[in-house]
Amino acid sequence: MNTEGYSCNEHFDEMFTPDGQVRGHYDEFYNYLSKASAKKMTQLQFSANKTQKAMGMTFNVYHDNQGLEKILHLDIIPRIIANAEWRKLEAGLKQRIYALNLFLQDIYNDQKILKDGIVPADLILGSKDYLKPCVGLTPPKGIWCHITGTDLVRNKDGEYYILEDNLRCPSGVSYMLESREIIKRAYPQLFNDEGVMPVSDYPTKLLKMLQFLSNKAKPVVGVLTPGIYNSAYFEHSYLALQMGVELVNGVDLIVQNNKAYMLTTKGLQQIDVIYRRIDDSFLDPLTFNPESMLGVKGIFDAYKAGNVALANAPGTGVADDKAVYAYVPRIIKYYLGEEPILHNVPTYLCREEEDRKYVLDHIDELVVKETNAAGGYGMLIGPKSTKEEHERFKFLIKNNPDNYIAQPTLSLSTVPCLTDEGIAGRHVDLRPYILYGKDIEVIPGALTRVALKKGSLVVNSSQGGGSKDTWVLYN
Amino acid sequence: MLSRVASHIYWLGRYLERAENYARFIDVNFNLMQDLPTDMKEQWAPLVAATGDFELYRKKYPGFERHQVMYFLALDSDNPNSMLCSVTNARENARIIRENLSKETWEKVNELYYMLKEGLERKVWKKEDPRQFFETVKNQILLIYGLADATVARTEGWHFRQLGQLLERADKTSRILDVKYHILLPTTHEVGSPLDFLHWMALLKSVTGLNTYRRLYGNIDPSGVVEFLVLNKYFPRSIFYCLKEAERCLRCISENTSDGFRNSVEKAIGEMRSRLEYSEIDDIIAVGLHEYLDNIQLKINHISDLIDINYFRAKDNFVYQPESQSQSQS
What we know:
The complex is a heterodimer of chains A (475) and B (330). By secondary structure, chain A is of the alpha+beta class.
C-alpha cells in the first residue's frame, strides 16, 4: 500500500522519521506493506475482525438477550519496538516496580520514608486508599504488586514517559495474547523473518508466580472475578483457562477457621492463592465495604493469618495515586540510590505553594487532574477549555489544593493504521505487563491502545479506542 | 469441580439438547404436513401442545398458522423454550464456564448463537422451505457433541454435561411421542389408516429412528413404536436408554462402584430406570400413553431437582443443606 503523503512530522511517529524515512526496525514490515495491495490489507483486516468475533473477544456490559458485546477493534498494522529501546524500558520498569514495592512495604510498616520527610506523611496516611487493616502486615514473600500494567506514552521528544503505574489489577493482558494469535495468522511468513519475541508463555509465567506465593508443593490457585457482567470477564475466564485453574466468584468461596475454601461437588476444597480481579474495597465485607456482594466474608482474616495469598496484595492502590506519582522519582532515589531510568511527566502538586502558584498562573497550558479520581473524571484540559472552566478550576484548587495536580499537555506518538482513507497515523500509548514473583519480569510485548478517531488522544476502549499488536524484536 | 461450574455445565447440556430437539420437531412436522391430503388443514397446534407451552402460545397468538408456530418455537424470545432462547442460554452458561471448555467448543457454541441471530434477521420462518435452516442448526449442535466426544476428558465435567443432555433427551422423546396423542385424525375410523401410519413414520424420522425401527420391528405399528421409544434397550434416544446412561453418569460422579445407591438422586433414578427395565408395552397401554408420559416427565423433573440438591448446593463436607427445592434454571 502507498504511504506517500503520510503525515509524520507533527508528532513522533513510530514508523517514519520526520523527513519520511522508514525507521530501521520497521524495514521488513515496510517492505511487506509497500508490496501488499490495499485489497489484501483490507482482507486481512476483515478476517482479523471475524476471528475476534468467533473467539468472543468481547468487553463491555453484556445483557442476556441483547448481545451487547463489543469487540475491541484490532488494527492489523503492528507497533514495533526495537530491541535496544526495549531493554531500556525493561530496566526502567523493573527499577520502578522494585522501588514501589519497597515503598509499599515501608509505608505499611516502619514508615521510614515518611519519617525522613521524603514523602509527606499526611498524603499517604490520609489517603482513602491507605488501608488501615494492612498496617503491620507483610504479604507472602514480601511482594505487594505482583502484576502491574504500567501506562507509558512517547512524547514529541522521542522519549517515553510513565503516565500511570496501575498497581491494582490492571486489565488488557488477554488482548495482548489473543491479538498476537490473530496477527500471527495474518503475517505467517513475516513473523518468521522478523524475529518477534513471544508473549504466549505469559499464562505459564503468571501461574508460576502465583504458585511461588504459597509454601505448599502443589498449591491450589484460583482467579476471583466479580462475575460475568464485569467488563473484563472475558479476560478473567481466559486467564483461568490458560492457566488451567478455577475461575471463582465470591459465592464459590467460604472461609472457615481462617482458611479459604471452594464449594465443590465433592464438598470443600482449600484454596491457597487467589489472583483476585475485584477491588480492595469489595474483597471482604467484614473488613472493608460491608455492602459488597462480590467478596468473601473473612477472606482478609485468612490472608492476615497467612493461609491464603492474594495477588495483588490489598493496599497497593495508595501507591498509584496521582499525587504519589509525582514522588516516584524521589522514592526510587530514596530506596535504591539510583537515578530513575524512565521519565515521569513533570507534575505540579497544588499542595505545594510554589507549584500551586505556577498552576494558577499557567492553567490554560496545563492538564489539571483530581488526585483520587480515575479515568478522566474531574479533569481539566487547559488548552481545550473555556475561560469560565479555567476560573472554576482555579477556585476548586484554591479551596482544596491537596486534591489537585497539574501536568503539561503531552503529545502522543503515532503509528500508521489501516483507515477508510488508507494508511494514516493515529495516536497510541503503551501498556507493558510486569510480573513480580521470584524475580521481576517484563513481558516482551504490550497492549498498544490506539485512538481510532483522527487527531484524537483518547485511547480508552469505551471512547472509540482500539488496539494493536506490539512486536518486540529479538534484535 | 466447583458446584456452580457443575451446574452451568449441566444446564449447557440440557439447553443444547433442547434446541436440537426443537429443530427436529419443526423439521418433522413440516415434512408431515406435506404428506397430508389437501383438504386437511395443517396441524401445528399439537406440536405446541407437546412442548408444554400451549398456554403461553394462546396468550400471544390467535390461531395456529404455520409461520407463527414456527416463529414461536424457533425464534420467539418471549418463549423461554424457543430454540433462540435455549441457544442463548446454552451460550450464556458456556460463557460463564468458558475456562472449562475447549476453545473449539466455545467457538462452535458462539457460532451457533450467531446462526440463530442471523435466522432471526433473515426471517427464516417465513421462507417457503425453511428446513435447510433447521438442518444446519441441528448439524451445528451435533458438531459440538462430536467435538466434545473426541476431545473432552471423561472427568466430572463431562459426566455433568452428559447427564443434562440425557435427561433432556428423555424428556423430549416423551414429548415427541406425546405429539401423536394430540394430533387429530379426521375420524376414529382413521386409526390404523395410511394417514395414521404416516404420522408414526414421521415420528420415528424425527428421532432418526425409522431405519433402526424397521430393522428391529419390521412393520410400523403403534405399540411397536411406543415400545421402541420408551423401553428399547439399545436405541440411544429411547427413554430407558437415556435414563440408564444418566444413572451411569451419576454413579461416575459419585465414584460409586458398589451395587446400591449412594444418595437420593441415585435412588430416584435407579428406581425409575428399573421400573422401565421391567415394564412391558401392555403396562404402558393399561395406564394410557399420555398419562404414562406425563408421569415420566414429572419424575425427570424430580430427578433434576435432586441433582441440584446433591451437587449444586453443597455447603460443607458433611451435610447437604438444600436451601430451596426450586431450580435456578428451567
